[in-house]
Design brief:
Blueprint: E1 4-10, E2 14-21, E3 34-39, H1 46-61, E4 68-73, E5 77-78, E6 83-84, H2 98-106, E7 110-114, H3 115-126, E8 135-140, E9 144-150, E10 153-155, H4 185-189, H5 191-202, H6 211-219, H7 223-247, E11 251-255, H8 263-276, E12 284-287, H9 294-304
Parallel strand pairs: 1-4, 4-7, 8-11, 11-12
Antiparallel strand pairs: 1-2, 2-3, 5-6, 8-9, 9-10
Helix pairs in contact: 3-9, 5-6, 5-7, 6-7, 7-8
Bound molecules: zinc ion.
Zinc ion (ZN) is lined by residues 167, 177, 179, 181, 184, 186-187.
């Protein structure tokens, strides 16, 4: 029987599971043997999310047992202990021993980490980061998160918090962020915050504006949207340039919905990052390749490391 790897992604609002045959991974174009996605309902809790994930996994595996399991979680994770610290989206995730729960359910080795670290691993093994020993992965979406590969190994820091580029401060007198500080990269460059700033500046209800709309309006030349989107791109670029000065990655991979904001956004991010970093600190900035499946492919890489 083929050796199977089970990948699980607790993404906040959606849950995904997939199975791949270990032998298929030698092919760079490897595809899933099976893949399922369900939305987490509005009344969801940690318990219902875990039950849904276990049902999807059993549906994919049938009577077979996975040789390895990798789990990506959209929130802070104690990697060493295999415990989810909490979720900002779904109640009941405080200190959930997810590695133990899945080990008990499938009698297989389990690894779990937060989605940014896992997506960094995915892009490094299977996507835009292949062949690079020192990599920064940054997702710019509802929030801004990051993960490092340094010297050919994932780097998590003393308490697993490395890569939090979203809450590095690029404008100390800037607007207030949910973390309590001012002018964080996430406060200026994430989709929901850009939407909030455009809504406030134009006197629109927040429900009528999204990060995607800000990008569309900017493309059409609407002045407020152009200003907010450009400020976001520059803020992200400063964050990336500062990160490059500190750790000198050879490549930075950008993923997440906001990276679909058009050529002007990309150009501003890259230009500002290069202007912020020292001239000797050279690095590429490239788009992620794995799309929505980055955490799942990363979970496969995590399981096998
Ligand atoms: Zn912040």
């Amino acid at each position: 029987m083929a050796e199977l790897i089970l990948a699980c992604d607790f993404g906040g609002t959606k849950l995904s599971a997939a199975v791949v045959e270990a032998d298929a991974l030698v092919d760079p174009q490897a595809t899933w043997r099976g893949h399922l996605r369900r939305f987490s309902p509005s009344g969801a809790s940690a318990q219902t999310d875990i039950e849904t994930m276990l049902v999807m996994a059993r549906e994919l595996l049938g009577s077979e047992r996975p040789s390895h399991i990798g789990i990506s979680f959209g929130g802070p994770v104690d990697y060493k202990a295999g415990v989810v610290r909490l979720s900002h989206h779904v109640p009941g995730w405080q200190n959930v021993p997810i590695r133990q729960l899945f080990t008990d359910a499938f009698l297989s080795p389990v690894e779990v980490d937060n989605d940014a670290n896992v997506a960094a691993l995915g892009e490094w093994h299977f996507g835009a980061g292949r062949g690079v020993a020192d990599l920064l992965y940054v997702t710019v979406s509802t929030g801004v998160g990051g993960g490092w590969i340094l010297g050919g190994r994932p780097y998590r820091g003393a308490t697993g918090m490395a890569g939090e580029i979203g809450h590095t401060v690029v404008d100390p007198s800037g607007p207030l962020c949910l973390c309590g500080k001012r002018g964080c990269v996430e406060r200026l460059a994430s989709g929901p915050y850009m939407a909030q700033d455009v809504a406030e500046a134009r006197g629109l209800p927040l429900a009528q504006v999204s990060g995607k709309l800000v990008a569309e309006w900017a493309e059409a030349g609407e002045e407020t949207a152009v200003a907010i989107l450009e400020r976001g791109a520059k803020s992200l670029g400063i964050g990336l340039g500062n990160a490059a000065n500190l750790l000198n990655p050879s490549r930075t991979v950008l993923g997440g919905g906001v990276t679909k904001s058009g050529e002007r956004w990309w150009q501003l991010v890259c230009q500002t990052a290069k202007e912020t970093a020292l001239p000797e600190v050279q690095f590429d900035i490239v788009p992620a390749q794995l799309g929505d499946d980055a955490p799942l492919w990363g979970a496969v890489a995590l399981a096998l490391l």
